[in-house]
Amino acid sequence: MSDAQTPNTGVMRIVDCPGTNSSEAGKSSACQGCPSQIFCASGAAAGPDPAIQEIKEKMKMVKHKILVLSGKGGVGKSTFSAHLVHGLAEDETKQVALLDIDICGPSIPKMMGLEGEQVHQSGSGWSPVYVDDNLAVMSIGFLLNSPDDAVIWRGPKKNGMIKQFLRDVDWGELDYLIIDTPPGTSDEHLSIVQYLRAAQIDGAVVITTPQEVSLQDVRKEINFCHKVKLPIIGVVENMSGFICPKCKTESQIFPPTTGGAEKMCQDLNITLLGKVPLDPQIGKSCDKGKSFLSEVPDSLAATSYRKIIQRIQEYCDMHLYHEGINA
Amino acid sequence: MEERKENNNLAGVRHIILVLSGKGGVGKSTVSTELVLALRHAGKKVGILDVDFCGPSIPRMLNAQDKDVHQCDSGWVPVFVDQEKSISLMSIGFLLEKPDDAVVWRGPKKNALIKQFVNDVAWGELDFLFIDTPPGTSDEHISTVDALRTCKPFGAILVTTPQAVSVGDVRRELTFCKKTGLRVIGIIENMSGFVCPHCSECTNIFSKGGGEELAKHAGVPFLGCVPLDPQLSQSLEQGRDFMQEFPQSAAFPAISKIVVQLLEASSSSNS
Ligand SMILES: Nc1ncnc2c1ncn2[C@@H]1O[C@H](COP(=O)(O)OP(=O)(O)OP(=O)(O)O)[C@@H](O)[C@H]1O
Ligand SMILES: Nc1ncnc2c1ncn2[C@@H]1O[C@H](COP(=O)(O)OP(=O)(O)OP(=O)(O)O)[C@@H](O)[C@H]1O
Ligand SMILES: [Mg+2]
Ligand SMILES: [Mg+2]
Ligand SMILES: [Zn+2]
Fold first, then answer.
1. Does B128 map to a domain?
2. Which of A78, A147, A195, B9 is buried deepest, with most CB atoms within 10 A?
3. Measured between beta carbons, which residues in chain B are less than 8 angstroms from residue A278?
4. Residue of the CA atom closest to atom 12 of ligand 1
5. Parallel, antiparallel, or unpaired: how do β-strands B155-160 and B184-195 relate?
6. Strand (E) positions, A198-271?
């Protein structure tokens, strides 16, 4: 049973998984020895999970669904997600929600100032936790007993949780549902895309930092998006330079040695939504569970966040417009 | 009999160390890379097994991106970084057709490859084998610890950055270690403060002290603070040997101190 194979050259190569919807599923040489081969070959993986239909019904109440993704860890996905919802919810007429599907490392409760909060069950499902009347949050962090609780779960259990978050949470009518993800291209990512396929995702915002160590993983994430036909709204370059508060000189702590996100976006023909500099106040606001946008509104980073949020809103409005035409 | 055969390839490895963190991007791969370089300079034979399948960083950080893995009688030959073959590596990065290929795998597939990585790589004789992991407490971590059960890993090094958001995730990783019976060698606080190269002002971009506090709170050794150091990130970008080229740089003494503690811990365990 071998995923890696030795062609005649003696060099080991991974033959890529053709994907569960492909006609090659379960039959390609990559599938030999894959523990999922039976599902794939039988077509069971592509077959309809009744939850997908239920989720589609539920999501009819949600106008816009956006994923926040990155191949790389710690680039600021959760920080960006948190500020995106804060920014969107400043318009009191909009209903906004944030769903955290980082099952093993949920940061959202702390960043939103909701540590220790719990989820309650009502007749219409699980009630999310509210930051404001128009800003709801759901995370596995609300289901744990103590901050030391580890969620030591393999894929299927994580997938089950994500399904429940989508199907059983009583979000009500929403203008925006923002979904924060863990790094990578694995169970959580496949599941969220699969479960929301019928309900349609507006697109993904991809977060990176300027250095190649990060970009090389982000290119993989972009390939993943193409593979699962997830539109990319654009890329945010975070931690982009640091201005010393004393001498005002800029240092490239994470140097863009291969041209940063700008060059990558040009090469791959995707939108660069903007750059956010390193600012010590961002981490502080996150640790306090406050919005950096209202704590330090005049900073360079806050201005940059706002511009990016506005571009995402514009994208969504366009998207809705197009859907209206197609319908 | 079967058990012994399974782990034959690890029989010559004296200390197996997992590098873990609940949090992403805190410097797990950086720590694995620099410790291996420093131990090589201390005359040790070392290896890294990279079980981060979706985001393998080790090949680039050690300037080995274009190398291939070959097969031999006793299994897979790891990639050697240097001529003397004192650093050996195994990573999914070496197995991909194109570097940007996404490895879109659910748990079971990852678990199968981890078994192969643990059992089939012919490491030969090594003083230290580091296992670089992705963030979290999921398939990769459970499977690695399972696969290593019979060969008693030396322990785990936990990496965190100072701020509360990161420390919170590392608390959960400590619970993982406790539950799986993995000894915690110690905690490293990385990206701890930045000294401006122009005016020497120190800014705590990601706060300060969270890792040390956590170590105290959890009653595990604290191995030290590594500052943010642009020469370190630059070296990793280009796959250069920071421990050889930048002894004057801010992160150097901190990493050296960690290596001394590691050598002490490992020699006392030998006696
Ligand atoms: N522009 C910034 N300036 C300073 N600190 C930042 C910035 N962006 C994020 N941070 C800090 O960096 C850390 C990592 O950010 P965050 O947790 O959002 O990353 P992530 O991509 O969600 O990580 P993970 O992969 O673990 O989910 C946090 O402590 C956050 O406060
Ligand atoms: N002390 C430091 N000073 C400057 N840059 C650093 C330092 N430590 C790590 N970095 C840089 O930060 C980035 C993240 O580090 P690294 O990739 O090692 O984290 P990781 O924990 O392995 O991330 P992942 O969770 O994605 O595997 C890298 O570009 C690395 O070069
Ligand atoms: Mg996160
Ligand atoms: Mg890593
Ligand atoms: Zn300065």
1. yes
2. A78
3. 205
4. A76
5. parallel
6. 203-208, 232-243, 250-251
Q: In chain B, helix, strand, coil percent, each to 5?
A: 40, 25, 35
C-alpha closest to that of A35 among B8, B115, B51? B115
CATH 3.40.50.300 residue window(s) in chain A: 53-326
Mind spelling out the 3-state secondary structure of A261-307?
HHHHHHHHCCCEEEEEEECHHHHHHHHHCCCHHHHCCCCHHHHHHHH
- How far from B246 is each of B76, B199, B232, CA to CA, in Å? 34, 20, 8
In a domain? residue B148: yes
Pick the CATH number of A53-326 from 3.30.565.10, 3.40.50.300, 3.65.10.10, 1.10.10.10: 3.40.50.300
Question: What CATH number has the domain bearing residue B120?
Answer: 3.40.50.300
Ligand 1: residue of A70, A78, A103, A186 to mutate (most ligand atoms within 8 A of CB) is: A78
Evaluate whether B194 touches B205 at the Cβ level (below 8 Å).
yes
pTM: 0.94
Smallest CA–CA distance, residue B188 to chain A, in Å, is 16
Q: Pairing state of beta strands B46-50 and B87-91?
A: parallel
From CA B167, how far away is CA B188, in angstroms rounded? Answer: 11
- pLDDT by residue (tens digit) across A231-266? 999 999 999 999 999 999 999 999 999 999 999 999
User: Looking at the DSSP assignment, which residues form a beta bridge with residue A68?
Assistant: A180, A205
Residue B75 lies in domain: 13-155+229-268
B104 vs A17, A33, A257: nearest CB: A17
- Is B238 within 8 Å of A257 when comparing Cβ atoms? yes
Residue B92 lies in a domain: yes
Q: Which atom of ligand 1 is nearest to the CA of B161?
A: 29
Q: What is the mean pLDDT of each run of 10 residues along chain B (271 residues)?
A: 62 97 97 98 98 97 96 93 96 95 93 95 97 96 96 96 96 96 98 96 97 97 98 98 97 98 89 44
Evaluated on CA atoms B90, B94, B96, B99, the torsion sign reads: positive
Q: Which residues on neighbouring strands pair with residue A208, listed in sequence order?
A: A237
Number of domains, chain B:
1
DSSP string over B160-182: E-SSHHHHHHHHHHHHHHHHHT-
- How far apart, in whole angstroms, are the C-alpha atoms of residue A276 and residue A267? 21
What was the ipTM of the complex prediction?
0.96
The answer as to whether B181 is a domain residue is no
Contacts of B172 in chain A (CB under 8 A): 104-105, 147-151
